[in-house]
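Training component of the fellowship. As part of building independent skills, the fellow (R.M.) carried out the full modelling exercise for a liganded target. The chosen ligand was flavin-adenine dinucleotide. The inputs are recorded below so that the supervisory panel can assess the work.
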Amino acid sequence: VNKIVIVGGVGGGATVAAQIRRNDPDSEIHIIERYGYISFANCGMPYYLGGEITDRKRVIYSENDFAEKYNISIETYAEVTHIEREKKTVFFEKNNKPYEIDYDTLILSPGARAIKPDLVGIASNTFTLRTIEDMDQIETFISDEHPKTAAIIGGGFIGLEMLENLHKRGIHCSLVDHSAHVMKRLDPDMASHVDAHIKEKGVDLYLNDKLESYSNNGATLHLQSGKTIQADMTLMAIGITPNIELAENAGLELGETGAIKVNEVMQTNDPAIYALGDAVEEVDFITKKTAHVALAWPAHRQAFVIASHLNGEKIQRDGILGSSIFRLFDLTVAITGQNSSALDELNIPFEAVMSSGYSHAGYYPGSEKLWMKIVFDPNSGRLLGGSVIGAKGADKRMAVLATAIKGKLTVDDLTDLELGYNPIYSGSKDAVNILGYKAREQWKKINE
Ligand code: FAD
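Fellow's submitted model of the complex:
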């Protein structure tokens, strides 16, 4: 019997366990998880904190149900301290007692941790959001202390999701970001719509600025610009660090991004040890360079790749797009592939086209504006990335663009996509077709 030990039991760990079990009723599978919950919905936590998901149990998968459904042994509150590869043994601590378990196959999905710099004056009213324990702490603080004001540091997707949800609870929010605009995966001309929407909602937006220290028991925030913010609570969402220490100490190779290096079937340089999720680096579909993409879709896909490989099948892949989507108040923000700034930095030639369309026919009530931008290769016309922002239908358009990129379609192909017309859902020419026509003109001109 193959004995499989998995470190980390959430996004990647629980998924890979379930995927392996689908093909393989016989292997012994063990999950070892540092904290108290396995297979919980990280991505649902902001919406529990905002009050849209009212039942805490909905974001948590019961450990017993999971163990029983998949016939898996689970240790929670158990921290893996080191790995001895020669002995194929994992060492962990639970209730301050040391344990060890041997393996035939080891799978690492230790995720990443939220960055929380130890700034002068930082106090217990500064939070990060990564685990259910973090979520519970934030919820307890809000229900017990009734904060009236909050500062969110970092305008990435977690910061923006929490901005929306704290605002929803009637807390006046300030958002601080060190860049010239929020959401650095958007080009500035697209991000400006997001910045404007944030201000429209009464949020105090501090761009090109940085939190440097606190005073007044964590209630006064001092920014680099000299400005101060008063906030009853702070959410720090300035990024994550992959948890690579276990792998590094075991002599496993790290990649260029600092995350764990894996091959196309997710094996580390030790073929008995696989790794996945936020702790690993992948290849970018467009640039073919290494990239650290900390999102749920790659973790799920990688879990399938590992389970298939253990079952004797090699899944062919050609890289990650990093498609992501979130809601911010009335808008949906959806991004796939590369943007102009990233391509510029990499000296990859591209053309960019922007267009604004509508979610559906203007004559049918409720039509909403969509802002769209794509970047494409000036020679081949192939799509390299796109972003869509709007109150309605942005998800669908981004999904079409993401599919087009993976299908290696050109801007000309976008004009020929039959996406289904009825005034409730689209125009007879969909917003994606219109964008395609515009880009096609530009492409033709360059190649005349
Ligand atoms: P995790 O799910 O974090 O699991 C890693 C686990 O390993 C942790 O529970 C950790 O305790 C455990 N661990 C670490 N070290 C050890 C050790 N030494 N011993 C034992 N256990 C250990 N992605 C999206 O695509 N869409 C979204 O909408 C989205 N929303 C998100 C919202 C929030 C608030 C957060 C925090 C993340 C969100 N993500 C989203 C990202 C997504 O959740 C992650 O990409 C995914 O969970 C990665 O899975 P993972 O297994 O690598 O890490």
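The panel noted the following from the submitted structure. The CA atoms of residues 3 and 104 lie 5 Å apart. The mean pLDDT is 97.
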